[in-house]
Amino acid sequence: MAGSGKAHLRPRDEVLLRVEDLVVEFPAGRGRTVRAVSGVSFDLARGETLGIVGESGCGKSSAARALVQLPPPRSGSVRLDGRELTTLRGEALRRTRRQLQMIFQDPISSLNPRRRVREIVGEGPRVWNLPGDRVDEVLEAVGLDPATAAVRRPHEFSGGQCQRISIARALILDPEVVICDEPVSALDVSVQAQILGLLEDLKARYRLTLVFIAHDLAVVKNVSDRIMVMYLGKVCELAPSADLISRPAHPYTRALIASIPDGGLDLPPSDTLISGEPPSPVDPPSGCRFRTRCPRARERCAAEEPQIRQVGEDHWLACHFPALPDPEPPVEDSNKE
C-alpha cells in the first residue's frame, strides 16, 4: 500500500474520526472553481490531538468546516465513530453536529454581542433540552468567575476571555471532537500560551479529542500528538510531532521549521528557503503542487503527482525527492568470527 493515497490511515476500529478522499471546492465565477481541498485523507484516534498546519489558503479551515458539513464536501467520506456524516440530512445531521464542536479564530465576532454570557453558553443545552444547568461548571472550567462573567456581554471582555467563553460554549455539549480553527492566532503571545495550556487541561479533564489548526508550526508542535502539513489543498507530510520537527522530510515542512525562531534544527539555507507566493487554488500546478516554489523540483515533479508513502515509523510524506537522512550503517557483531 506504499503508493496508495490512503496508506497512512489506521484500521477503522482504532480511530474515532476517519476522513477519506475529502474534496472541497467552491465556485469562483466565470466557470472557474477554487480547489480548496483535493483528496485529503487523515484519521484521529480517541483522545488524540492532530495538528494541521500550512500557509493561509492551504485548505486547513475548509477541511475543518467540511468535517461538520458546513458546507458539505463535494466528495469523500467523513466517519465519526463509524457513522458516515456526508449522507446525513436534516435532524440526523443536526444531532451529529452536537458531537463535533468548533472553536473559531476570531473569538469576539463568534459571540452574539446582544446576549449575556449565560445565554450564549447555555444556548446549546436549551436547544437540545438537556437536563441540568452546567453553565457555572464550564465557566469555572475555562477560568472565568460565573458570578461576574455570566451576566456580562462579550464586548466587556478581552479577546482571550472571549475565547474562553467560546471554549465553554463548545464544552457544555459534551462533544466527542473539538475542532480548533486557529483559536489563538488573533491573541497576544502571552494570552496564546494561557489558552493553549487551558486546552491541554480541558483535554485531560473532559477526555477530548482535538483537531488543532494553525499556520504557525511553533504553536502546533506544542499541543499536537501528530502533525499534518498541508499545501494548496494537499497533504505533504504526516508524522508524530517530535518526529516531524526533528526529521522533516518534505521541503515545505523544512521551510516551515526553518522559520521558527530557535527551532533547534540546523537546516542548510539552500534546502529550506522558498520564494514567491503560493499558486492560485483555481489553477494549481500540474504534478506536485509545491514544485513551483521547491528548491528540489525536477522534471518528474511537473509530470507526476507524488503519492503518500511511509518513510519512518508512522511517518508519511508525498514527495519524489525528499530530504531523508542517510541510513545508519549496520552494527557489526563483535561475536562474529
From TrEMBL:
A single BP term in Gene Ontology: transmembrane transport
Residue stretches making up the ABC transporter domain: 17-257
PROSITE patterns listed in its UniProt record: ABC_TRANSPORTER_1, ABC_TRANSPORTER_2
Gene3D superfamilies in alphabetical order: P-loop containing nucleotide triphosphate hydrolases
Pfam families: ABC_tran, oligo_HPY
Region feature Disordered, mapped onto this chain: 268-288
The name this protein goes by in its record: Peptide ABC transporter ATP-binding protein
UniProt source species: Nonomuraea aridisoli
